[in-house]
Design goal:
The chain has two domains: 116 residues, Winged helix-like DNA-binding domain superfamily/Winged helix DNA-binding domain (Arc Repressor Mutant, subunit A), CATH 1.10.10; 82 residues, no CATH class. Helices cover 50% and strands 10% of the residues. It contains ten helices and four strands. A two-stranded antiparallel sheet has the order 1-2. A two-stranded antiparallel ribbon has the order 3-4. It is elongated and about 70 Å long.
Length: 222
Amino acid sequence: MSFPGFPEGKVRLVPIPGPFFYDLLPLIDDLNELKVALYAIWLLDHMEGHFRYLQRSDFFDEALPKAGMSERQLDNALEQCVDRGTFLMAEVDGSDGPVRLYFLNSPKGRSAVDAIYKGEWRYSGEALQPVEVREDIPNIFRLYEENIGALTPLIAEELQDAENMYPADWIEDAIQISVENNARSWRYVSAILNRWKEKGRDERKNRRDTEKDRRRYAEWED
């Protein structure tokens, strides 16, 4: 089979970092590894969002059939890309078990993986991009330790449940209220969040609760 040539007219160009050619390419000695690396760069360029990543399943639609690779060869190529440093791999706990996410080893990719291991991610609800890496949002564990106290395994589980249940700004604001009322406990914060969920949050322009509200929250702690 031969290549018929590039078509006439405008075609979409894929930006490939210069170091790929003069630093990385001389190190790659496996054809499947090269194919997977190039395909990943092309696919990531077609994605949207600040933090972009691939899953193993993303390579099945076109990469495997067109490249003539078996699943075993794909797994070996992905492992080689990670070992080589082309990709960064982060593993998160999915509903059906561990899920591996592959990021390009770029500043954004390194930032995303660092955020994931700090717990700064959540499920997006989208099948193609199930994990959402949050940008510029304080980590709930860090917020807790800085404002309330030492983190225990039980509290960590409750914090993760809260992240999946409430908006990040609710949690941050509820912790702030607990600090202002000198009621530094997760029970107190959880009571605020639960009330907002059941009765609705009063979204004033200044996004602050009245003194009456704060006294009511304090009563829950008693």
